[in-house]
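Newbie here. two chains, one complex. Structure please?
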Amino acid sequence: MKSKLLIALGLISSLAFSQEKDSTDVVYKKRVLEGIEVDFLASYYKQDGIHSSVSGGMGSEKLTDLASNITIAMPLNDDDVLTVDAGLSAYTSASSSNINPFNATGASGGDDDDDDDDDRAPATGPYGTPWQASSGASAQDVLGAVMVNYSHSSDNRNFIWNADVAFSNEYDYTSIGFGGGMTKLFNDKNSEISLKVNVYLDQWRPIYSTELHEYAKYGTTFQSNGFFSGVTILDQNGNATTSYLPSDFTTWKSTNRNSYSASFGFSQVATKKMQFSLFFDILQQEGMLSTPYHRIYFADKANYYIGQAQYIPDYESTQNKGVYQLADDIERLPNTRFKIPVGARLNYYLNERLAVRTYYRYYWDDWGITSHTASIELPIKLSDKFTVFPTYRYYTQGNSKYFAPYETHLSTEKYYTSDYDLSTFNANQYGFGLNYTDIFTNAKIWKFGLKNIDFRFNHYDRNDGLNANIVTVGVKFVEQ
Amino acid sequence: MRKMILAIIVVFSTISCNSVKEYDKQYINDPDMKLSARSSERYETTFQVYREAASGANGGKTGGGCGCN
């Protein structure tokens, strides 16, 4: 695989040097960016599924997300542009709420570590179900992100370099990233090669599921302390027991998560109506690559529950209204991951009304996952201002060698996950977009003219039961 | 599949690439012909990174910056 990529890179590079010689005479230097441009973007995302990874591959995956973003590109002079990108994303999730699936007296409810609340005897006894959201604080979170990018173009506009820094934060995760890139155009700007490198130095602040949090805190006496004090644990037959002991569980000692990537790209104007690009990334990830609140249930370990015993026989169905299975461990994945995605785009201008945009990606990583992605979009110009574009995307992947469904892994395995995002599945995504463009920016707010409005709707269907809808609205203003 | 991808790369690499002059690029410069994802696809790319094992080679995150795959 790696030798073939090297051959491909060599061919692309030889093409780069076989073109007509560029003229280096600067006749006219057009300003890279004429004025400040402001982009607003907002989306609403809603999903549902039946394989919650927080509940070990079983349970509701209901989630809604509201996200918004503003991007401001500012010309500093004729050659340089500063771009600031900031956004917020707020989600509510039935799945993540079940980090603490019981009522609000659960220990990992996201509050401080004061145990005064945990000693309070619950009125009716805690219960939960993987099929419904709990009232825990982990049901919702807000992600904030900001990125600043500086780019410089040469006088002849054939060479561009950029540098960027990024920061994002949510309740249990912080990311700091930086990177840079170079782009070289040649052959009368018909050909382009690019290289980008990025580093993310991230940090988990692990949240563990209630039962494992208490075991880590109190050790073998956890059933007499904290959340479990006065709480009845049930066995598979619904009888009270004190045998539950998640001895396989240990907390993460090192919580760093670092990613290093290099991206290579080549694009070519092939004819007056067709152009294409080829690109691939090389990515290495290191550190805590497991998600600390993804439960694992071992097939060779007995099952234990908290809640209402009459629902134990119906645990795996939505008829389960009031019992939750206690975890044997959390997912354990290797602390390194090497990824290579390879992609291509080809766009063809059929006529003044219709163009074709296509995309393909092949993905491989050393966790055993391979995937194919293919998409097509047909921009149809209804008038000089309105364009509608139906879209279709197909995705298929093979499972990671560390994946197994709910209650399938054995405790003797070294690595295990029941996260269905790493399973075998196919996905179809179809939708449409609508674009309004006013090149004369007749509508104005203050000194900014409205350049275009975008609307997109897509429906996403995975054959493992997960489906989602997403609506996106974007508005672009340019300085007059 | 690997052989097919390599073959496509070889074919494209040997295409005779006569230069298209700037004054002939009215179709290539159409906004719908841009060789990148639309900016309005950003959030779709984000949820695909979260819900699928694959990432990268699409202008989105290649990994890092989120507690996702």
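Moderator note: The longest helix of chain B spans residues 2-14. The radius of gyration of chain B is 17 Å. Thread marked as resolved.
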